[in-house]
Amino acid sequence: MTFVVGLFLSFFAFQKFRKSKEDNRYFHLNLTISFISFGCVGLVLTTRAWIQDVETLVLWNDLLYFFVAPLAPTAFYLAFHMTGKQSKLLLYYSYVCWFASFVLYLGVILGKGFETNVFEFPFGKYPRGSAFVRPWGILAPLGYFLLILPSFIKHYHYIRKHYHLTLFHGVNLLFLLTTLNAPSILGFKVYPGGFFLFIPMLLVAYGVFRSDFFDVNELLFQKNGMFYFLFALLSFVLIFISFGVSFGLSPNAYESAKWYPWGIPPVVSVFGAVFLSIIVAGANPSARINQLCAFALILTGFYVIQSVPLKLNISYVVQLRISQMTFVAFAFAPSIMVRLVFEAIGQKSPVWLKGIDLLCITAAILSPSPYLFVGYYDYPWSRVHHGGPAELLVGANGAIALVLVLITFLRNKGYINFASKWIIGSFLLSALLLLAALLPSHGIPIYPIADFQFIPAFLLGYAVLRHGALSLEGRTIQLSQRLANLGLITMAIAAILYFPLIREQYGVGESAFHLTMIVLPLVLFNYLVVYIMSRPLAEELDISYFLLDLEKQKADEEREKALIAQDKAEEAREESEKLLLNILPYKVAQELKAKGSVNPVRFENATVLFTDFKGFTKVAEGMDEQSLIEELDACFTQFDEIILRNNLEKLKTIGDSYMCAGGLPVENRTSAIDACLAALEIQSFMNQLKEIKTALNLPFWELRLGIHTGPVVAGVVGRFKFAYDIWGDTVNTASRMESGGETGKINVSKETYELVKYFFVTEYRGKVHGKNKGDLDMYFVHRLRPRYSQDPDGKAPNQYFREVYSRISRGANIRWKKES
């Protein structure tokens, strides 16, 4: 029992270890190892009660102490954790115990772990520990009394605040009972208390669950923990039955006439309940009601198992031991059945269920004791145990549960659905059959109708399946069912082939009964392994297929949305790119996107062009706002197209003034030429507009235009509204060229003149005063020289001009002949 409880708890502790955070991982790891070690103490004690050969016993003790040795260091670490990690000595002492454990391992490896000198007790042989084992046996109890007990007393309030008291008492009792094993290891014949380790293990289990170390509901039901635990236990029982009958049941066992027909009802009940538990649990392993129903059916089967040997002519001691083992599990039937009923009606477990649980635990503890049965009665149908106090406790607990469930049903019958009523009805029928079994066990000669438990078992299985707790059918689930059915056919063929072999020893009826008891457990085991153990995997795969299909559909939808979003994003990007390029030059815009800012740059030979409308204010006074804006926009739009054709960059407009520049943001050698070409086009456009307005007798604007070439600094100003601008004296000089010019003409500075004089017809104006600039040399640019013009007016350049222009832009130095 200690070993089973230890494995059970270590499973849950390991699950928690896998999911716990970094702070608690060491705690849950030590908890897992500790539970395994305490459980293996139970195996050690079992070998000492079972193995008579001393050398074999020593060998098994050496092997098992590999798993028992970590008990001491992990237990001290757990105590350190329970004190809130305040007692550092406990942590350091756990390291010392680890060292002692490694010394123990060394002795075991050398074959000197335990001595062949043993203490003989009525309950087994206890070998003495060698010098390699004794330090471990001394340190553990010594540390408990000198360190753990004082630390627990000192930090009692912290422990009580953070942990359930059951855990506190269970841990202390574990240490005390384990300490009682130390004297026999050290060479003193003292009664070992380890026999009762399962009691504090159960207390620790209860305390651990109540302290919320584990999410029990998640592990038992959502993670199918109860499902796997139950059917692992059931698998062991089925194999045990098959091998026990095959190797332990002689033909003499059938000499009694009681095996037929009295043995048939319990056999049908046992295997019927097991088969139904497999069907119900396999239908939906993750459903709580299915697992509780399977648990209840298995416990019912455990009770009826003990009725089968009583129909055979075998030793009463064997019959008694089988009954005691089955009652350890069956004692929990009232607790499970009540939980099943309340799960079915959709209510929380009642408070009084804790009392039922306590009685179940007490009955389970007393079941292996002499208090379960105190003899037996011989009836015509079979032998029946004479019930003792423990059996009466099981019966009384069942009766109490029956009455309380009946009261609950009567109070809520108007709200309970049909399937739930079937579940409650099957529970009541099963409880009545079991209570009736108390009569023959106390001398009243009535056939134990509890052997017919297959009736309420079938009702219960039908009700739970009818309740709707069925899983989805799918491809992999259907495959597991077919594999299980194939196993059934295989076992049936094997049984038919085996029948003639046992027919020589048994009669026909005995052979059939014997073969049934051998083959049917194997059939159910096969069905359980193939169908049940693969069922959760199959269901997960089917759900995975279903989810994959959903994910594929979602992925397709998301892909379509992504493509649409990508198209929209591309459109938005292009739109923003277009807007950015409307504000900034291409090179500057790219730098701004790449770096988030633009470094200012100095250009040594930039050409700045300014325009301004003469008499704008006077003309504007006679126009409405809308017409004024439309007129101005039409002019500036035309200017934009002209300067774009001539490799200039628009900088800004200020009222009726227009400013642009050449030779930036990409430096070139043709900016002055470009500006003059653009100026000719602009003045030509304004002249055409003047002619049209004059013909329509409408007011018109005349334009002054000035150009200057020189160094400037260019950059981007502003964070939210970007603007590409230039600074320097060149800008001011260009503005003076515009203000000092004449309407309808292009006025340029001497610096610009020197760069364009070989291409354009110019006129020197002399020195003209510029505001804040003094006297400045100014020139009018009238037209392209005839050799470079393709039209009589000299506005459009010809091919020869373009060839020379191209050579200059590529960096060639041109030597000009003097023009006549």
Automatic annotation (TrEMBL):
Entries under SMART domains matching the protein: CYCc
UniProt cross-references to PROSITE patterns, sorted A to Z: GUANYLATE_CYCLASE_1, GUANYLATE_CYCLASE_2
KW Nucleus (keyword) present: no
InterPro entries to which the protein is assigned, alphabetical: A/G_cyclase, A/G_cyclase_CS, Cyclic_nucleotide_synthase, Nucleotide_cyclase
Keywords attached to this entry: Coiled coil, Lyase, Membrane, Nucleotide-binding, Transmembrane, Transmembrane helix
Pfam short name (any one): Guanylate_cyc
Record's keyword annotation contains Repeat: no
PANTHER family: GUANYLATE CYCLASE, GUANYLYL CYCLASE
Name of protein: Adenylate/guanylate cyclase
Protein's organism: Leptospira ellinghausenii
Higher taxonomy: Bacteria, Pseudomonadati, Spirochaetota, Spirochaetia, Leptospirales
